[in-house]
Structure formats: structure tokens, C-alpha cells
């Protein structure tokens, strides 16, 4: 059976930079640059301007990724799109991206909901679809607009300071003879912790889905049990990373580059230390992107390429943890 490889990568960040100082200036938020920097490593993030959609960002990132892969739009035959912040409640954003990229050419679009683990879920599914020959060139997209759903008061400050808007895309296609492709991946979920990191409303379990009272209580904003998420994120990413290393008969010494989901610089420092991988063999972008959920790992790929840390045939280990809880890891040859 043929293997798949990542042929190209692209990213898009909105123009508007929002620094910690700008958040500090929002009196009701009651936060500070010092607190955010010390606890998370974040210095700034980007927010979309009104009218700019998640599908718009995904379009720009896709154009870049297709060009980076040396392909044209005509080569793409499937879309897998991950987002926790679709432009509308339904349909998912995949169809809007299909329209922007292909117009009258109808291309299948699969929307996935795996939050910060979306990239790993999407890439794993894309790999299987390429291996079986079902499709030839798949866009795996992550696009998120957090800025329009954040609580800019003290009530929501723990979550609000963390997130930023962005999109990123990889193109997955057939690997050449001898290329190792995706050596191993692992995907997990544990729904008993769903309400420890979630956005509750509007919800179809409620009649009606949302009320003025729920809005007054802030139940339409994301909520998080920060300390608990922090501990699980470190433990589960390390566990999953070790799982794919074992599955493929490799050790951390074999890994050229580690790309971790960008939720908190302290989480990543702990995880990389537990994996016994030197910090030079990783790239973090959270300082200037914040947490961009589904978009984070391919943004790190772009940055690693820019820094000369990601080269042809390198062995890359990626891991992510997010809402659900969901988590996973992948070991692949670049
Ligand atoms: N600015 C200023 N103070 C803040 C704040 C903010 N933005 N957010 C919380 N605080 C305050 C708290 O109210 C608390 O005050 P208190 O001691 O008076 O009660 C204090 O800071 C400590 O809060 P705590 O939640 O214990 O801080 P922490 O060290 O755990 O850091 C997070 C908070 C959110 C940075 C951290 O828990 C985290 O990163 N968790 C994981 C987040 C994550 O990964 N989310 C996405 C998963 S994909």
C-alpha cells in the first residue's frame, strides 16, 4: 500500500496584533502583561477585523500551502477542515473553503471537531485516505476565530488572554518510493472531562438553546479548569508521544524536531523535558500567536522551516492536547 507525506504547508495570521499591554489597558479584564508572560509565555496574539471569516483565513493559508507543495488547485481532491469556531452554526466551514478555492468544481469537505487535537485527527484521516487510494491530494485545514467569543471581563480573563485567531493548512499526498511518511499516530479522547474545557451554549440539549439569562451568566463564553487542563496536557502529550515512538521502534534520540500544540509555553517546556529532548529541537510560536487551537502545529512547521530547523527527510514528532478531552501524537518523516 502506498504511503502519504506532507507535501506543503501554509499559514495565515490576521493583520491586527493585540499585545498583552492592550489587554492590560482593558480595565474590566483586570490582567497584566507580567501575569500573562510569566504564566503562559504569550506576548501578543492576532485578532480578525470585522468581516474577515475563518473561511477567508483558511483560503489564504490554503493558497500558500498548495503553492508550497508545488501543486495547483486542480490537484486537490478533498478537504478536511478542523475548527471549534465555524463561521456559522451549520454548515461547517469546509464548504465555504470549497467555494472560495474551487467555485464550480465540487470537492468533498469533511468537517471535524477535535479542537486543539484537530490537526492530528485530520492528518491521520488524510493519511488513511491517501494510503487506500481514495484521494490523491488532501488539504488538512485548521482555522479559528476566538476573538469574537471571548469574555473581556475579569470573569473570563483566565481564558481570554490565551487565545488568538489564525489558520494553517498542510497538503497531504502520496509519498515517493522509500519515504517513511507517517510512521505512527495515536488518537485518544476522554469525554468525562468535557465540561472542564468547553463552551456550553447555545446547545441543542436546552429548550430553547440559549436564553437571555444564560447570556447574562456568561454561559456562551469558553470556560476552563486551567490547572487541571495544564496537568492533563503535560501528561497526555508525553504519553502519546512515547506511544508513537514505541509503535515505530524509535527513541527520542531519533527525533529531529518536536512540534507541540501551543497552549502554554510552560506546558511545552515541561513536556519536552519529560521527553528528554533538548529544547533546540523544538519550535514555539505561542509568544506571538497565542493558542490558535486547530491551527497551531502547522504554524510551528512554517516557523521551523523559516528557522532552518525542518529539513527534507527529518523525523518529526508532533503532539497535542485539547478540549474533549482529546489528544494524540504523530511521528512522520518530513
Ligand atoms: N490575569 C491576571 N490574573 C489572572 C488571570 C489573568 N489573565 N487569570 C487568572 N488569574 C488569577 C486567578 O484569578 C488566580 O487569582 P487568585 O490567586 O487571587 O485566586 C491566580 O491568577 C492564579 O490562577 P490559576 O488559575 O491558579 O493560575 P495558573 O498558574 O494555573 O495559570 C493558566 C492559569 C490558565 C495560565 C494555566 O492554568 C493554564 O495554562 N492552563 C492550561 C490552559 C490550556 O492549555 N488551555 C487550552 C488547552 S488546549
Characterise this structure.
- The chain has 334 residues and is of the alpha/beta class.
- It contains eleven helices and 13 strands.
- It has helices at 20-24, 33-40, 54-68, 94-102, 118-131, 157-160, 212-216, 226-247, 265-274, 286-289, 296-306; strands at residues 4-12, 16-19, 44-47, 78-82, 108-112, 138-144, 166-174, 182-189, 197-199, 222-224, 257-260, 315-322, 326-333.
- Strands 1-7-6-4-5 form a five-stranded mixed sheet, sandwiched between helices. Strands 8-13-12-11 form a four-stranded mixed sheet, with helices on both faces.
- The radius of gyration is 19 Å and the shape is globular.
- The structure holds coenzyme A (COA).
- Residues 31, 35, 39-40, 116, 157-158, 161, 197, 224, 226-227, 229-230, 233, 263-264, 267, 291, 321-322 line the site of coenzyme A (COA).
Structural class estimated from helices and strands: alpha/beta
Stretches where pLDDT falls below 50 for ≥5 residues? none
Tell me, what's the shape?
A: globular
Q: How many strands, which pairing sense, and closed or not: the largest β-sheet?
A: 5 strands, mixed
- Structure summary, number of beta strands: 13
* Major β-sheet strand ordering: 1-7-6-4-5
